[in-house]
Amino acid sequence: MSLSKLNSLYREVILDHADHPHHKHALTDATTTMTVKNPTCGDVINLDIDLNEDDVITNIGFTGEGCTISQSSASMMSDAVLGKTKDEALKMAKTFSDMVMGKQHDQADLDELDDAAILSSIVSFPARIKCATLSWWALQRALLSNQQEESDGEA
Amino acid sequence: MKTDISDLRGDFPILDQLVNDEPLTYLDNAATAQKPNQVVAALTHFYQTDNANVHRGVHTLAERATAAYEDARHKVTHFINAAEPAEVIFTKGATDSLNLIASTYGEANIEAGDEIVISIMEHHSNLIPWQQLALRKHATLKYIELTPTGELDMADAETKITDKTKIVAVAHASNVMGTVNPIAALTKLAHQHGAIMVCDGAQAVPHMPVDVQALDVDFYAFSGHKMMAPTGIGVLYGKRDLLAAMPPYQFGGEMINFVHRYESTWNELPWKFEAGTQNIAGAVGLGAAIDYLENLGMSNVQAHEQQLVNSLLPQLTADHQIEVYGPHDPARHTGVIAFNIKGLHPHDVATALDMEGVAVRAGHHCAQPLMETLGLVATARASLYIYNTQDDVDRLIHALNETKEFFSHELIKAE
C-alpha cells in the first residue's frame, strides 16, 4: 500500500499536535498580532505574542483553520519559542525555514526546535512546505513588524 | 469517429506513467487538460515549417503563418457557431477575455449608480474585473445567490436584475459546484432589462456543445488550455455591433489602421483587439484541439463524462464520511465534483491521494466568495475529461477509502 509513505510525514507527534494543538487560543491585549494566509489553499493563521521589555516571548497563542501540517506546525512552533528572546526566536525561524528547504544545519540548532524538528520530513512533500512554514512565517513577520515599529518610534 | 476510449488514451502519452509508484489517475482537468499528440504535432509542425509573423510581409512563410492563424479563427467560429470570424478575438485566456470586456465595454458604458450583476459561484476571473469596475465607476455590484441544492437561484436572478442593470456576467458551468447555469434564460432576462450578457465558458466549451447564437449572449469567454490546446491562448466572442463600438483594449502594432503624429485609427475587427504579435502557435494548437474534439463529437464527449459522473457521484454522496458540494443528482452535475472527507483538511486528502497516483485539486478554486458562502475554507475537487475511464473512477474511490483508513483516528474525532 503506497500510503505507507505517508507515515514519514504524518508521524504520531504531528498527529497529536494537530488533534490537541497547544496554545490554540487568542491572547487579550497581545503586544504583537499578525495574520498570514496561505494563498494556495486559503488557510489562515492569526498569531498573538506578548513580548516583555527584555524582548522575551512571555505568552503566545494562535487561532485559525488549517490542515494537519499547518495546525501541528503552529502548535510545535508555539511550544518551541515560548520563553525565548526575539533574536533567539528569529534564529529558530531561520533554522526551520532552512530545514524544510533541505539545507544542512547544525544539530544544536535543530535541537533548539524541539518537536518542530520532526517536520524535516516535509522535504519529501514539496507541495506541503508552505503548510509547515505558515506559522513560522507569521512569527517572523510579527517579530520584525514589532522591531519596525520600535525603530520608527526611535527615529 | 473514435469511440474506444482505450484507443484514445494512446494519444496522451503523459497519462501512461507511474506517479509515486502507482498508475497516474489525472483528475485535475478543471485546472488544465492534457494535450493529445495531435496538438503537440501541430505546434511542432508550425514551428518547423511555417513559423513567421502574421499579417506582415509578403514572403511565403508569412503567408502560410497568416493562413494557419486565420484558419484557427475559422475553426473557433464554427466550433461555437459565431456568426463570422470577425466576432472571434484571440486572447491569452478566459481571464484576459473577461478583463478585456470590463476594460473596454465596461469602462465606456458603466456610470455611477448603474448595476452589474454576477453570481456568487463565479471564479475570481469573472468576479474581480467587475468588482474593480464597479469600484472605479461607483456602480453597484450585485450577486445572484444559490438554491439549497447549490444551483443558481433564478428567482433571485429575477429580483437582482433590474432596469438599472447594465451588465450580467455568469459562468456557463461552475468550476466548483459542477452545475450548468441556464444562460439562455439569464440572457433573455438581461436583455428584457436592457443589460448585456457576458458568459464565462471556461468550464463549458471543453465539455459540451456550445452555440453562442442560440444562447444569444453578447460576450462569451473561454481558455484553450482546458480543452487540450496550449496555455496562453483563449477566445473572446462578441457580437459585431458591440465590438465595433468598443474602444481598443491595448495599443501597438497590428491593431492600427493609420498612425499619425497626434492621432491614430484602428484596424478592422477582430484585429482591433489584437495588439502586438499574438500567440500564433497557440492559436494553431487551439485549431488542432478543436479538430480533435470535433472528430470525437462534443455530444459524445459530454455523454462519456456523464457516464463517469453517473458512477462516481452516487458513490461519493452515499458515503456518510464524505460531503459533496453542489447538486447530488448526477443528471444535474458536470464532471467537476467538489467534496471533503469530514474531519480532514483537503490538503491532507490531496497529499494522500497523490501517494496513490491520483491527482486532484485542493483549495479554494479561485472562488473565495463562494467558499465563504458555503462556510468552507477549502475543498478537494476531482474533475473528469474525455480520456478518463471507469478505472480512474475506481482508483479514486479506492484511494479515498485508503485515505479514510490512514487518518481513521482523525475521522473518529470528527464523528
From TrEMBL, chain A:
Any matching Pfam family: NifU_N
Q: Which Gene3D superfamilies match?
A: 3.90.1010.10
> From which domain of life does this come?
Bacteria
Tell me which species this is from: Furfurilactobacillus milii
Domain NIF system FeS cluster assembly NifU N-terminal: start-end pairs: 10-131
Name used for this protein in its record = SUF system NifU family Fe-S cluster assembly protein
Automatic annotation (TrEMBL), chain B:
- Does this entry carry the keyword Transferase? yes
Described function: Catalyzes the removal of elemental sulfur and selenium atoms from L-cysteine, L-cystine, L-selenocysteine, and L-selenocystine to produce L-alanine.
- Say which species the protein is native to: Furfurilactobacillus milii
Question: Entry's PROSITE patterns?
Answer: AA_TRANSFER_CLASS_5
Q: Which family does it belong to?
A: Belongs to the class-V pyridoxal-phosphate-dependent aminotransferase family. Csd subfamily.
Q: Which residues form the signal peptide?
A: none
The UniProt catalytic activity note for this protein reads:
(sulfur carrier)-H + L-cysteine = (sulfur carrier)-SH + L-alanine
Its EC number is 2.8.1.7
Instruction: Name it.
Output: Cysteine desulfurase
Instruction: Write the record's keywords in alphabetical order, separated by commas.
Output: Pyridoxal phosphate, Transferase
Lineage from the top down?
Bacteria, Bacillati, Bacillota, Bacilli, Lactobacillales
The residue ranges of the Aminotransferase class V domain are 25-396
Q: Give the top-level enzyme category.
A: transferase
Pfam name, any one: Aminotran_5
* Cofactor requirements of the protein: pyridoxal 5'-phosphate
